[in-house]
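Input.
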Amino acid sequence: MRQLLKFGQILAHRTIRKPALDRKLDALRLNAGPALVVGSAPDATLPRGFDGTWSVVTVNASQGRLDGWGVETPTLTVLRNRIMEDEPHQNAVWTLLDGRSTDQLIMLASSRNEAKLRDGVSARGYDAGYISLLSDEQKGAVIHQLTGLIGVSCDLERGVSQGVFAALLALRVGAPAVVVTGVSFSSSDHFYDKWSQRAHLDGDRQVFQRAARRGLPIYAADDRFAEESGLPLWQV
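Output.
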């Protein structure tokens, strides 16, 4: 069964309509400076040299961290594929995002009804200047393009979290460097929901280890996460 699943994942990557994916990604715009990817782990820090030339990429409810950093609106936000489900963790995300906005929104969703998802986002009090959907297959294709890894898009054990995917996405869209903060391999909860346990640890480690080996310009914002992830420490 596992071999059949692996074969199906490989076949899916080979049959992705690359022009359609490229059009979605080419429509995204980042600033000229590095991209700061902000995750939802309890600890996050601003990296050295951060200023208005940087892009800010948030995932799920991590936008709530920006209040004390002088950043009003993220450049890009990535929301999980289960965000529209009526569950305590998803509701905690929407509670924090209510009344906020983002310049661009990527939704990882199995549904292809973009109008319905757009209405759902608006009904929850969140505003996005631009919204686009990425399927699990398209998410996997982005991961494969940058790391060569196959079959790590959504599985809970080997899958990739929104924060790690956002780092790859920012690089794919054109960021000259990506600095990651608010992502942890040692803390299992979220700063806005301590009852929700973190998943995707194996997949996240695998992706960042591969990124470091390939020399991709993805950096850790602090010493602790540099040691945990194997990413180089961001230095100005």
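The chain has one domain: 2-229.
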